[in-house]
# Entry
Amino acid sequence: MEIKKGFLWGGSTAANQYEGAYLADGKGLSIADVEMGSEHGVPREIHDEVKEGKYYPSHEGVDFYHRYKEDIALFAEMGFTCFRLSINWPRIFPNGDEETPNEAGLAFYDKVFDELLKYGIEPVVTLSHYETPLYLVHKYGSWRSRELIPFFKKFCEVVFKRYKNKVKYWLTFNEINETLNQKQPYHQAGIVFKDEQENRIQTKFIACHNMFVASAKAVIIGHEINPDFKIGCMLQYPTTYPATCEPEDVFAARLHLLPDYYCSDVMCYGYYSNTCTALQKRWGGHVEVSDKDAEILLKGKVDFISFSYYFSSTAHINEEGNLVVKNDNPYLKRTDWDWPIDPLGLRIGLNELYDRYQLPLFIVENGLGAIDKVEMDGSIQDDYRIDYLASHIEAMKDAIMIDDVDVMGYACWGPIDIISVGTGEMRKRYGFIYVDKDDDGNGTLQRKKKKSFDWYKKVIKTNGADTSNKE
# Structure
């Protein structure tokens, strides 16, 4: 079965994991630039400044900054019709609160977008993807403060005007719901809790509200600059099953999804739903929404929902009455990183989101992180990646063709190997293109096609009709 014409096929990246050139051409420091590499299961060490002799993986990434033409040519060879990337906020405003943007940073993205458009590839641009200017964290406390709202609005206005004829698809905040789900929402909101007396729950709610208002203002001004802009939110969607059919476990699965719906309800409905107010009560937080903010949220609703999906979870209520979420589903196979492989979970998630919001959906992250082996002949036989992606694409097709879910496109995570956001490692590889670099930052950065490269090329050429692993 073939998907509707105009469906967007491609891949997704983030500047902090891909771009490198961390101080080139006037760029300021982002929150990623003071985050060291680590090992699987070990939290990354975060510093207040760059320290001599320490390894910060984002400083080089895999050097897209200097190799963008080579990489985009490879994406074009696969047949990409879209490519998701982020604009590195401190590349445009080095500190984040300047009056005047950095022209060299703006010129870089002009070149990237021009190169993409040369091949007929639609840029899909994330405005904030874990690259909050570090200066805003130190001076203002990051998204704890409403003062970041006008800074973000100005950043958006500058790039919207600059690229209004080059970029149509925009995402505001990457995986915004993880601001509530993470103990330390550093990547999402630039927040590190150092004061033991700080009310962390309340801080998360306030940070989310400030980001909601900032996102809504971006949507409003974006539509004023170019009414053809399509501006979406971006979620991490955790399809969740009850661990058993015991009613308490069924309710536990709902509880696990509440923080995620909290964010999407506000951004899609334009107001705080009962789901939102119920979560505030449950967690012991509260957000005062002024009449002005309420007006902005309603006017600044998103046009579509983009989301990441990697695996599903199970939930239950333990003997103490607490919510317990695990990824230990015994019916599912697992990845090298012990993540369950659940393609049907993607179809379920698509249906849940579309049933709830009736907005177009865009899968902008889905992929398999694995340890790839370069064979003696130089080839990389990543059949496991092909199997994973094929099964998920087939599940997506079922959602589209059987369930009548409106899906705009599919952009797998990491079409080229990039550093891991969780650890900064290179050995957790997602790409169709291998990059010669190791976990310590050593390597030539040479690009090499994996077996999956030609497979994805075939999938795109047939518009999803042929996902088989055959020559």
Notes: The first strand starts at residue 8 and ends at 12. Residues 8-461 form a domain with the TIM Barrel fold (CATH 3.20.20.80).
